[in-house]
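# step 3/5: fold
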Amino acid sequence: MSRLRPGIPDDLATIARDIGSLLLIEAALMTITVAIAVGFGEFRAAFAIFLAAGLTAGVGGLANRGFAEAPAPKMKHGMVIAAGGWFMTAVFGALPFFLTAWLTPPAVMDTFVPAAANWEPVRVGGTTTLSSLAYFRNPLHAMFESMSGWTGSGLTMAIHEPSLPRAIQWWRSFIQWVGGVGVIVLTVSILARPGSGSYALYQSEAREEKIHPSVVSTVRTVWKLVVGYTLLSTVLLFAAISLSESEYAASLSLFETGWQALNHAMTGLTTGGFSVTDNSIGTYGSPLVEFVLLPIMILGAIAFPIHYVVLHDRDFRELVADLQTRWLFALLGLGVVVLSVQNVTSVRIAADAFTGPAFLSVPWLDAPSLDAVRDSTFQWISALTCTGFQSAPIGRWLAGGKVLVVGAMTLGGAAGSTVGGIKIVRGYTIARGIMWQFSRVFLPKNAVVTARIGDRQLDREAMEREFSEAAIVTILWILLLIASSVVLVNLAGPDFGYADALFEVASAQGNVGLSSGITGPSMHPVAEGMFVLNMWVGRLEIIPVLVFVRSAIYGLNP
């Protein structure tokens, strides 16, 4: 029992104290956002976020100081702290959205709307406004936005992002940026070997080990990399937007160009996908902006330990030597080709429907076909890296193209990066495990069987453990995906088919953010609440959430 709070178990005291620490950090992030609001003269938003920071700090401080003498966390606490901490930061992270919406009158909301906007009005009580800020008066919408931000999902209730106050635009980007770093630290430190540690740790004796102090060193190293990459990405995006020949880019001031470049650099690098433009990256209509974003998204999908080795040792051979990085680039290239063929073919079939049978005679390198290749390239990379930036109307694609993108969002990039999905290392382990199991059928019982995954040589016991672990997580992930898509297709309305529902759930659970058009303030509340859980479960890769639920019912002891 806790020495400071008699009757409270030590395990619960440890978990409460550390989640309290996370809330104190979140309160500090809100305080930074208050300064942003004051800088832009958004004093109502500043007061609302200051109030949110005070409430968050109050709860976090009570938990942190009230259980200050609780035992140090062990590995068995790590997953519960991760799952509970992520959920609670999303809950309190919703307060800036919710309080800003309620403390800002509709007439003031209208001042945030661009002058040329021609949108459907938002009805709030007996008044109307064009600002999407009003949607966050609904607590479920605010919670959805916060969970989407903290999990790096990118699906949004703010259908017109330019109509939000700058402080809220910043808060959306900021929580994705910080949340992305949190994912990296979680996977490379708390959960041991990226891509498999969570399940193995919960099974093994390591549950009783203390969390290694090298976590602090890892946090510092990751932050250095993320800040450096973000600054470089901001400069590149600023140049790309400035040099873009689109009418929209030409209308931007230097400050607005820099603001958009910074926000998109933050959410692109951490594969979050929130945007501050009205139609994501499609707003620019610029091949140059899309081209510059491609390496930024790919950087976020490479395991950050590889970044460190390459930059620290200046050994670029590690990009080829690393299993996940090698397969990431192979899948990026293969997927671009396959999706381009699919979408160009659909464009040609559509053209034939209007011009008669000309499938072979119409030039394949005409403007519609080149646009299809461009859109396929950007959207495949955005999907596989789980970024969620959107440049094309995916909702109008044929079902075949949507299903291909679902596959990319389900798999995701490298473990140890900021991506969601199952991860490349698990997909590879399952494929190797199936071949390994098949090869054993033709070997004598006394044969010594080994398998290689990357640079690791595994004996029979180790391979069986890794294969079963990857299979368990993947099966649970896919079962949740299928079950959620069946629920959604019955709630989404007649305008959407099963391919649309499957796409939308894969985007939420894979923490991607691409949308076929289902997600929005008008979606069914049950579907919206389900997506909140999908995003949470997907970010934590299921096992920590199951451990969290089990621990809440039975406690942490086996």
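# step 4/5: annotate
Confidence is low (pLDDT under 50) at residues 191-212.
# step 5/5: archive (pending)
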